[in-house]
Design a protein that fits this description.
The protein contains 14 helices and 2 strands; from the N terminus they run H-H-H-H-H-H-H-E-E-H-H-H-H-H-H-H. With 344 residues, the protein is an all-alpha fold. It folds into 2 domains: 180 residues, no CATH class; 146 residues, no CATH class. Strands 1-2 form a two-stranded antiparallel sheet. Helix 10 crosses helix 13. The chain is flat and about 70 Å long.
Length: 344
């Protein structure tokens, strides 16, 4: 049993390593190092000029600590067929899950403690002694153990394993990891959920129902009804807008905003293939050139929508000007080049 789950873990790690090279490319690592250096400088300035009003710092810590506690999951590596073929080995599977819970606590507890140690100077400035800080770390470790145990009890109660819930839990865990990698490259094995969202149907009326807009209408429907596309768009647009609004450094805020907007456009390029498995689309009278034009029009429309939202969050003319230039470059130069590369 251990050999089976060990092989599954190694296979999933190999799959991650294949995508990790796209995440840790030269450009991303360079941006990451720049952001890390900027964050360390800002952290040092915060400690050197610690505000007399501690309330904002306390609020931030009050948000961060629950986030740290909620982080982490149990990697069971269960698969759909296991609820049938491993049912006679349920006791061994339960023993493995309990061991996986302990390993998860060791990993995420260590990460949580490392973050708290990094924030120790702030706690000192807030008046906490070393003894109280150690007590706080131990209490949070105990709470982390409780949180992970509660996650395990979702599908494991005593010696009874709810196979359906356990398989769904592991599937959701893997999907969340793969969706992160999908921000940087095309990832196989991601499942999508479709919701009708009738309250968004009025937006579909903005697209004229003409033969030339056939693919544009289909792209709009897929975008609004697929949780992956719409959720990704809203999350990254929110992050780009917050970067513009809260970060006062001109180049950092605009760089982050453009990176988030670029990721939106890059990910939504997969819409081009969304209907490839619908064989009836091969009967449509519109050719691939019309499909490409509609894709370009749709993504440009979303790009300029993001630009408008970002502009509403701008506090200075130079920031707005750089955003406009950057988004025009993405929409008018990068998109046609990338679409041509995809089709060719």
């Amino acid at each position: 049993m251990k050999a089976l789950f060990l092989k599954r873990r190694q296979d999933f790690q190999k799959q991650q390593n294949k995508y990790l090279r796209y995440v840790l490319n030269d450009h991303f690592v360079l941006v990451l190092m720049f952001l890390l250096g900027f964050a360390m400088v800002q952290y040092g300035q915060l400690l050197n000029h610690f505000p007399t009003n501690h309330l904002p710092i306390q609020v931030c810590l009050g948000i961060l600590i629950p986030l740290l506690l909620s982080m982490g999951s149990i990697a069971t590596y269960l698969e759909e067929a296991d609820q049938h073929f491993l049912l006679p080995k349920e006791e061994e599977v339960i023993s493995y899950i309990k061991q996986a819970e302990r390993l998860s606590f060791l990993l995420w507890g260590t990460l949580q403690t490392a973050v708290l140690l990094f924030l120790y100077p702030i706690f000192r400035r807030l008046g906490l002694s070393l003894f109280i800080f150690i007590i706080l770390v131990l209490i949070l470790l105990a709470l982390k153990r409780v949180v992970l145990s509660r996650k395990t009890r979702y599908f494991l109660r005593g010696n009874r394993l709810d196979w359906a819930k356990a398989v769904a839990f592991e599937s959701n865990r893997k999907q969340s990891i793969l969706k992160f990698y999908s921000l940087f490259t095309t990832v196989k094995g991601i499942s999508t959920k479709v919701k009708e969202r009738t309250y968004l149907n009025p937006l579909l009326k903005l697209v004229k129902q003409t033969p030339s807009n056939l693919w544009l209408s289909l792209y709009a429907r897929a975008f609004l009804r697929s949780s992956d596309y719409l959720g990704l768009f809203l999350r990254l647009m929110l992050l780009s807008s917050l970067s513009v609004f809260f970060i006062h450094n001109l180049y950092l805020s605009v760089s982050l905003a453009l990176i988030f907007n670029y990721l939106v456009v890059f990910q939504l390029l997969s819409l081009y293939y969304h209907y490839d498995y619908h064989y009836m689309t091969s009967l449509y009278p519109e050719n691939s050139l019309s499909k490409k034009k509609n894709m370009l029009s749709f993504l440009r429309g979303l790009s300029f929508l993001m630009l408008i939202v970002n502009m509403l969050c701008c506090s200075s003319a130079p920031k707005a000007l750089i955003l406009i230039v950057g988004m025009v470059f993405i929409a008018c130069i990068y998109l046609p080049y990338k679409l041509k590369k995809i089709i060719d």
